[in-house]
Amino acid sequence: MDAVYRALVDIVGSDYVSVQPEDLFTYSKDLGTSEPGKPDYVAAPKTTGAVSRILKLANEHKTPVIPLGGGMSLAGLALPLKGGIILDLKRMDRILELNEKGRYVVVEAGASHGKLTSYLHKHAPRLMHSEPGAPPAATIGGNLAIHGQGDLAHPYGFNSDMIAGMEVVLPTGEICRIGSCAMGEKWYTLHPLPDLSLFLGWNGSTGIITKVSLKLYPCKKIREMDIFCVEDENLVPEILYELTHAGMAGDLVAMSSKLPPYSDRLHMISIALSEDSRQEMEFKRQILFDTHLAKYIREGTGGISMAGRDVERPMVSKASDWKKGGGFEYVGAILPVTDYPECYRRGAAISAAHDIPYTVLGRVIGAGHAMMFSWSYAFNRADEQSIAQARKALHETDDLVMELGGTIWKPAVYGQKLLLEKMDANTLQMMKKVKTMLDPNAIMNPGHWEVD
Amino acid sequence: MRISDYQYADIIHRCFRCGYCKFPADWSDVTNCPAYARHRMESWSSGGRLWLIRAWVTGEIEWSPYLAEIVYACTACRNCVEKCPLPIADNIVNMVVAARSEMVERGLLPPAVRDVLTRVQQRGNPFGLPAKKRGEWAEDLRVEKFSGQDYLLYIGADGSYDSRAQQAATALVRLLEKAGVSFGILGKNEADDGNDVAFMGEEGLADYLMEQTIARFRELGVKQVITLSPHALYAFTAQYPRLGGDFQAYHYTQVLSGQLRTGALPTPQSGGLRVTYHDPCFLGRWSNEYKAPRKVLGAIGGLQLAEMERNRKSSLCCGGGSGNCYTDLLGGSEESPARIRIRQAAETGAGILATACPNCLVLLEDAVRAEGLDDKLDVRDICEVFCQASGIPL
Q1: What b/e sequence results for A265-304 when a residue is b if at least 16 CB atoms lie within 10 Å of its CB, and e otherwise?
Q2: What does the pLDDT average to over A426-432?
Q3: Contact in structure between A88 and A42 (CB atoms under 8 Å)
Q4: Is the ipTM of this complex over 0.90?
Q5: B-chain residues near A135 (CB < 8 A)
Q6: What pLDDT score was predicted for residue B2?
Q7: By a Cβ cutoff of 8 Å, what residues of chain B touch chain A?
Q8: What is the CA radius of gyration of chain B?
Q9: How far is B67 from chain A (nearest CA, A)?
């Protein structure tokens, strides 16, 4: 065995390093349409110290390192494009500190969102964090590395806006803390120090997030979802404007999908409501429906299609079975709320052109400051043509996002290229400086966010 | 090499590898898949395994001993079936077993698996011990041979040959006697139930064993069977009818809970035992029996049942299912599922970890020693706990 393998065994133990062809195969694929990218090694460290040693080793050998969380990006963001070491971080999954009154929790970055939700349910039921719509195996660190959003996006923004501290390992192996935790053991704030959060949205190409302090928010006893339905997509932005003005909803999502057939061309606006008492819930409903949305009900242009539905964990994986094919991928994009009608129409047209049932979804981020749109394309993993067709649809959607003036969210390599091409030259150079300064040997997830 | 006739070729690609299969019901961790908990690499998860099987079937990867180990390390605990949100869920274990069948067909087995199957083939039990010794465990007990009693007590290979499981079998005999149940055993005429052999993918041998047992039961006029092992229970209730088995089978906890209900079995006092209970996969997730064992334990006066966080459908498998108890493919580590389970049991503060399966009993008892907790936690079968509380000497 070679020197890198022997060193990895020394760092993490032989049980957690592999060069077996089967493991290299497994880690060469992700869940979406990306072409496989084969690693040379797989390692699953348990500690920040081990991550640090591995990065120093990788620098010595100029070997790429690709950090992997839950592997749920679907966009191939943790596939080795140039070989190297896949670092599966899911063994780093401890919940280290809960400060209930201070409303934050410190976790290792490989902890899953499912684990944290379950932990809070048991140990601090009056608190919650923003859980993404991804499967519960998605990790906290992975989600931050791609600027994820979750079910608190409307009131509080991106998940990466909700952190109160980070520990990162720089590409050259130094362990750094960012925020109040850099001066001691209190992980309560990222601000007001100079901003060093250069690791969010970089897909692990500037370093590895190993610990995170997440802000926690009130979790009410009763959590329900109402759905307001309209036929005219042009009404969606103004309805969202009304709802965000009222400021009473939690998660706000507008969605239209070809399947099931009864939902085709309808726009379902799901309104998450939470309160500690029935009285408060009914008060909120009264304000929302009798005041803000009454006009649409009276006109007959909108209606309440469901009220008081239990909030269940989203089962996004079911989308992978639309073609009975075990696969789907989506383009995510951040756009103004006002672009919903265009996003819906153009997205549905792309789907129709590729014979894929359309699903267009938009989640409100902040008080209507932006919306995360997603256009999902199911494919059949056993059919190369189906995969190619979905990939083509994804690329066309990336192009559409750029045409609409949007910003592709967690772009695959194709989308990254589009964004970099359009980016201001000085901003590009700044990105390059940051990357070169932090990662002089260009070992971190090479092929991602690379500025020529 | 492409496997052209793999039975599930039309659906295996429908696994999305989304990871729901790793979780218990409360989403508290990704470690409720025993093989994934042991190795913590994706290939060992349920989804990773299915993707590798598919790659082998389609010729993308070649067979290797490592691949075979991954395929055989699945304990068929059914946690994945419970958690998978896709329509393929019910076939996840079937897809793994079908891949094993392909490996059996081609003689491509991990040595440990091959040896177990050889021993069953040659001696009728996974231990490779002589068939004529199968009834020795009961010689001093003076248990009647089956001759038309109400029930046949089917002990199985573990209770017949493994010294620890024999203690559980002995306790069960004493309890059935105390409850006045009319039963007999087969002794050396008992054959392997074939459950683990079937799950190891050796369909031909499994069918042979099952047909042999069906013929014997028919010959003796067996109408009702009590099993010590949930593995036998599952085989008798789910697999034997396919081959013409037409008898009723019950796990012993189901019979004992009935005897308690009628008052035939007196309820003892425990003097404040604190007990936690490990749901065996083939009694719980496979046979949907969660109440009977708890009723038996609950009938012991003063006994405090302290549930582990992962219980019932979320119970973590001990790592012994589908032959792994004999092949030990998940052993040798602090993260072996049985050792994790012992740590979960210890967290409850219980002094006794009770179970109702000889495989679980043996693996968990080994694990409690490996964890250095054998002075704090006793691993017992439920019938042993009941005997102790009842003052029945064993």
Answers
A1: eebbbbbbbbbeeeebbeebbeebbeebbeebeeeeebeb
A2: 97
A3: yes
A4: yes
A5: 18-20
A6: 81
A7: 11, 13-20, 22-23, 26-30, 39-43, 48, 51-52, 55, 60-62, 64, 66-67, 70, 85-88, 333, 335
A8: 20
A9: 7
| Tally of domains within chain B | 3
- Distance in angstroms between the alpha carbons of the first and the last residue of chain B: 56
User: pLDDT tens digits, residue range A19-51?
Assistant: 999 999 999 999 999 999 999 999 999 999 999
Rounded Cα gap, residues A14 and A393, in angstroms: 42
Separation of alpha carbons B176 and B154, rounded Å:
13
Select A222-310's CATH number: 3.40.640.10, 1.10.510.10, 3.40.140.10, 3.30.70.3450. 3.30.70.3450
Q: Is A16 on the interface with B (CB under 8 A)?
A: yes
Name the 3-class secondary structure at A170: coil
Do the domain assignments include residue B328? yes
Could you tell me whether strands A65-68 and A85-88 are parallel, antiparallel, or unpaired per DSSP bridges? parallel
Which superfamily does CATH assign the domain made up of A316-411 to? Answer: ACT domain (3.30.70.260)
Q: Beta strands A104-108 and A85-88: pairing type?
A: unpaired
- CATH number of the A3-90 domain: 3.30.43.10
3-state secondary structure of A82: coil
What is the span of the domain harbouring residue B79?
Answer: 12-109
Tokens of B155: 């002990």
Say if residue B132 is in the same domain as residue B254: yes
Of A20, A118, A326, the CB nearest to B28: A118
State the DSSP H helix or E strand holding residue A333, giving kind and residue range, or none if neither. Answer: strand A326-335
What would the pLDDT profile of A393-418 be if each residue is shown by its tens digit? Answer: 999 999 999 999 999 999 999 999 99
Among the ranges given (A62-71, A310-319, B118-127), the one the predictor scored with the smallest mean pLDDT: A310-319
Chain B CB contacts of A27 below 8 Å: 42
- CA dist B99 to B4, B7, B43, Å? 12, 9, 15
